[in-house]
Amino acid sequence: QLISQEDNRAFYLDFGNEKVNRIAYAASFAMTQYPTELLPELKQLLLKFKKVGVREIDGVNICKNININATLVPDPTILFKGEDYRKLSNPISNIKKFTFIYSLNINNPQQIYWESLNPYINRKELNTIVTTADGLIPACEIFDAQYIYATPNEWLWLIDNAEFVVTASFHGILFSILMNTPFIYMPLRNVKAGMNNRVILLLKELELEDRICNSKEDIKPILDSKINWDKVNMLINTMRNSGKTFLTFN
Prior knowledge:
By secondary structure, this protein is an alpha/beta fold. The protein contains nine helices and eight strands. Strands 6-5-4-7-8 form a five-stranded parallel sheet.
């Protein structure tokens, strides 16, 4: 957040007693480079922090450029396990075997290769459930499928119980991983492509880059392949422990 906007200074905890411990966990600058003219003031604000944890490599680099030691930490949702979220989920009745499309920042069916994905779903004799939401673009109903405007608790249940999840959303992918639900990641394109970085970094860390769909020909091979969940869970548990270690104080 740019400190040139006065209200944004609250994100830098620019209030309270100077002796209070200030901690940033999984913060994001939401940009790859911070304006040069604001760097001196940014440094003074961050010097007040006991620990700075950021969720993106770009954030680490911004801090490094002003001699602030920032640690790359996992998304806060990773600090909890799938079983923890499962306790919060609410079932939706009368839904048979289904695939779940979490349609965020998608306004054209071709963005997820619908002409190839839909026949695959039909061959598997699955229903298609879609939840859409506002993001960079307004929510819109663009698929010939059943739309459910799920509550957060129902959204968790849909991800947990789907045969597989299709999404361009970071948290759609992350919760699929936490719930051990097979998924296919549809990267955003054109001007929105920069939002893919966070997802791609996560998938690389978990050795799941093969779940990224870059063409309609990728759909069947990805969805027919198995995920080694034991390995993925071990890797994500390492990430979880690193986040907890960051939040531990002597």
